[in-house]
C-alpha cells in the first residue's frame, strides 16, 4: 500500500463522496471508483449481533434515516449497538433531509432509492470484484471512552473487525484509524501488521466531537504527560504510521515535523478549494474530503500531481 508519493497528494473520499451521494453507502463508494478515486475513509460500528457495519454515528441520524414506511425517524436514541443487522435493514439511508441543520450542509447531495447501511464485508466484496490501482481503505473505528454501551469493549471490537479483515485478502490495503487510541492499542496487539492512523481534534467544540488531545485525555489512553506540540513524536513512539489531524489544527511546521519523524499526514475534512490548496502547500500527504471530484479537478487545473 502506497500512502504517499513525493510531490503528490492522495485523494480520499470522505464516507464515500458525502457531498455528492448518500454517505457510507455502496453506491457512494462505487461512484469513487467509477471516477478513478482509489481511496476512501469510512466508519465502522458493531450491531447487536456483532456484525461490523458501515455507519458514522452511534445512533441512527434522524437527518438521513427513514423507517420502513418511508417516513423520517424522530427518535434520536436508536443505538446501532441495540439493533441486530436484520433490524438495521428496516431503515433506509439513501437521502438527507434538506430542511435539517445537517441536510442544509449538503444541499446538492443526490437521493438514491433503497439504500441500506452496509456490512463491512459488503464493501470488501465490492472492492474484490474490481481492480483498483493504489487502493487505500481508511477504516475509522468509532469508539468512545466517555459513554458506555455504544460498542463492545475495545479488545472485543477489534477482534470482531479483524475477523472480517482477515477474510478480505485486503490487509495490505487497509489503514485503521480512530479518535479512541485504546482501539489503536488493540490493533497494535492483535494485528501489528496493519498500518495505524491516529486521529486528533484540538478545537474546543465541534459538531459531534470536542477536543480529544489534552493532559489525561481518556481518548489518548496515556498515563504520561505530554506537550500538544509533540504529537508527531508521541504518535511515532506509539508505532503509528499516519497522523490524521483536523485541518484547522495544523500549520506547515507541524507537517514538516511529522515528516521528519517519518509519519504520513492525512488531513480531514477539507471541502473548500482555498483550504485544499493551503493543505497542499503545507505538504499534506493525503486530503480527506466530501468532494473528491472537486479536489481532483483542482489538482488537474493547477497541474498538481494526485493519486
Describe it:
- With 307 residues, the protein is of the alpha/beta class.
- It is built from nine helices and ten strands.
- The protein has helices spanning 26-34, 85-88, 120-128, 154-168, 181-190, 231-237, 252-260, 273-282, 292-301; strands at residues 8-14, 39-46, 52-54, 136-141, 174-178, 195-200, 242-245, 264-267, 286-289, 305-306.
- The chain has an eight-stranded parallel β-barrel, surrounded by five helices.
- Strand 8 (264-267), helix 8 and strand 9 (286-289) form a beta-alpha-beta unit.
- The longest helix has 15 residues, at 154-168.
- 41% of the residues are buried.
- The model has no long low-confidence stretch (mean pLDDT 96).
Shape: globular
Assembly category: single chain
What is the beta-strand fraction?
15-25%
Q: Between the first and last Cα atoms, what is the distance in angstroms? A: 12 Å
Task: List the helices and strands in order.
Answer: EHEEHHEHEHEHEHEHEHE
Alpha plus pi helix count: 9
SSE layout:
Elements: E1 8-14, H1 26-34, E2 39-46, E3 52-54, H2 85-88, H3 120-128, E4 136-141, H4 154-168, E5 174-178, H5 181-190, E6 195-200, H6 231-237, E7 242-245, H7 252-260, E8 264-267, H8 273-282, E9 286-289, H9 292-301, E10 305-306
Parallel strand pairs: 1-2, 1-9, 1-10, 2-4, 4-5, 5-6, 6-7, 7-8, 8-9
Antiparallel strand pairs: 2-3
Helix pairs in contact: 3-4, 4-5
Summarize the structure.
With 307 residues, the chain is of the alpha/beta class. It contains 9 helices and 10 strands.
Notable traits:
single chain; 9 helices; alpha/beta; globular; 8-stranded parallel β-barrel; 307 residues
